[in-house]
């Protein structure tokens, strides 16, 4: 179990490295791994969740910030990017198995369908917020995770 998580973590770090260019692929290196990401109980990390329904852990490496959402039973659900200018869901956790909806932005029409098993009515809760990012989890009436959304806070420039 640890080896696949370490491999996924190393892959995520390699894909997210800001100075890595498509033409110059660097080999995976254990030093590129983000320690604790993808683990049920990340050593040395505090639960920073704003919701009593989910646990949240943050990780930073090479100027990138990632947010891991766990269940209250410490099951890894998903890892999302909280770095300004990025919109990434890493293939880590139980939500990595769920299908994604592809949307044609020009026509705002779904290109694919997805189903989710949950008990409704559904609710939403903010689990994480910083100066640039808010993460909201949608969950069923039994507390089961359905999906999550990353909402980027627009940065305003001071008047000149």
Q: What is this entry, summarized?
A:
Keywords: Signal. Helices cover 9% and strands 30% of the residues. The chain is mainly beta and 160 residues long.
Number of strands: 9
Helix-strand string: HEEEEEEEEE
Unreliably modeled segments: 18-23
Rg from Cα: 17 Å
End-to-end CA span:
54 Å
Shape from CA axes? globular
Strand percent estimate: 25-35%
Strand order of the largest sheet: 1-2-3-4
Textual characterization of the structure:
The chain has 160 residues and is mainly beta. The chain has a domain at 46-152. The protein has 1 helix and 9 strands. The chain has a 4-stranded antiparallel beta sheet with strand order 1-2-3-4, with helices on one face. A 3-stranded antiparallel beta sheet has the order 7-8-9, with no helix packed on it. A two-stranded antiparallel ribbon has the order 5-6. A hairpin with a 4-residue loop joins β5 and β6. The longest helix is centred in the first third of the chain and has 15 residues, at 2-16. The termini are far apart. Keywords: Signal. Residues 1-22 form the signal peptide.
Key phrases:
160 residues; mainly beta; three-stranded antiparallel sheet; globular; signal
Helix and strand arrangement:
Blueprint: H1 2-16, E1 55-61, E2 64-70, E3 76-81, E4 89-90, E5 103-104, E6 109-110, E7 123-129, E8 133-139, E9 145-152
